[in-house]
Design a protein that fits this description.
Layout: H1 3-11, H2 15-19, E1 22-26, H3 33-46, E2 50-53, E3 66-71, H4 80-92, E4 97-101, H5 104-108, H6 112-125, E5 131-135, H7 143-155, E6 160-162, H8 175-185, E7 190-194, H9 200-208, E8 213-216, H10 219-223
Parallel strand pairs: 1-2, 1-8, 2-3, 3-4, 4-5, 5-6, 6-7, 7-8
Length: about 230
C-alpha cells in the first residue's frame, strides 16, 4: 500500500469529500473575467466548497458555490482602515468569506498589539455571519511568531488562520506550520493551508496535520490523484 493509499484511507476521504475542503483559487494579477468564469464553472464541476478570486471580480455569479476573496493582498502593508473598507465592500458585493493578510513586518517586530488591532479592524467590517480568515505568511515566520500570530487572530475574532498568500518568496504551506497553527487554535478556529499544494499526497498531508480548508489553484490535478489509487 502506498503512502497516498494509507493517507486517503485514514481520512475516509474520496474525491467528493476532499473537494469540500477546497477554496478553488485564481489570484494571479493577470487573471481575466473569462478565466474567472472558467474557474467558477470548473469549481462547480469539481464540487469544491468555494471559489476564491480577487475583489475586483465581485460581484460574482458562483452557481451555488461560496464566494471567497482577499483583502490587503498580497503584502498586508496597507492601512487597517483601507483593509477594513476593502473587506466591507467585498461583503457588500457578495463575498461570503474574506482572507486578509496581516502586517508581516509587525509580526517580525513582535508588535502583536498592532497585528491584533489590524485584524480587529477588518473583523469589525465583516459581519459575524461571514467568515474572516487571517493569512499569517507562515513561511516568513519563526515557530514562535506563528503561535503569536495565531493568538492575535483568535483574540481579534477571526474564524480561520491561513498559512500563506502563495506570493511570498519564503514559500507557501508546510505541514510543520499547519501543525503549529492547529495546535495553537485547538479547534476553536479553522486552519487553511494554502500555497504550493499541488498533489493529492500534499493535500492529504496538510489535512493529516490539522488543515480544515485548502487553498488550491490546481484543484483538478490534485483530485485526479484519486484515479491512481
Amino acid at each position: 500500500m502506498s503512502t497516498t493509499d494509507t493517507a486517503a484511507g485514514s481520512h475516509g476521504l474520496d474525491r467528493a469529500g476532499l473537494a469540500q475542503f477546497v477554496d478553488h483559487t485564481l489570484l494571479k494579477p493577470e487573471a481575466t473575467r473569462e478565466q474567472v468564469d472558467a474557474l467558477v464553472a470548473e469549481g462547480a464541476r469539481l464540487g469544491v466548497f468555494s471559489v476564491c478570486v480577487s475583489p475586483s471580480f465581485l460581484p460574482l455569479e458562483a452557481h451555488g458555490l461560496a464566494v471567497a476573496t482577499v483583502c490587503g493582498f498580497p503584502s498586508g502593508k496597507h492601512h487597517s482602515q483601507v483593509k477594513a473598507a476593502e473587506a466591507a465592500l467585498s461583503v457588500a458585493q457578495g463575498a461570503d468569506e474574506v482572507d486578509m493578510v496581516i502586517d508581516v513586518g509587525a509580526a517580525k517586530a513582535g508588535a502583536w498589539e498592532v497585528v491584533e488591532l489590524d485584524i480587529a479592524a477588518v473583523r469589525a467590517s465583516v459581519p459575524s455571519d461571514k467568515v474572516l480568515k487571517v493569512i499569517i505568511e507562515s513561511a516568513a515566520l519563526t515557530d514562535h511568531e506563528i503561535v503569536e500570530a495565531c493568538r492575535a487572530a483568535e483574540q481579534a475574532g477571526a474564524d480561520f488562520v491561513k498559512t500563506s498568500t502563495g506570493f511570498h518568496p519564503a514559500g507557501g504551506a508546510s505541514t510543520r506550520a499547519v501543525s503549529i497553527m492547529s495546535e495553537t487554535v485547538g479547534g476553536r478556529l479553522g486552519v487553511k493551508a494554502s500555497g504550493g499544494i499541488r498533489t493529492l499526497a500534499d493535500a492529504l498531508a496538510m489535512i493529516d496535520h490539522g488543515a480544515t480548508r485548502l487553498g488550491l489553484s490546481g484543484t483538478a490535478a490534485v483530485l485526479d490523484g484519486f484515479d491512481a489509487l
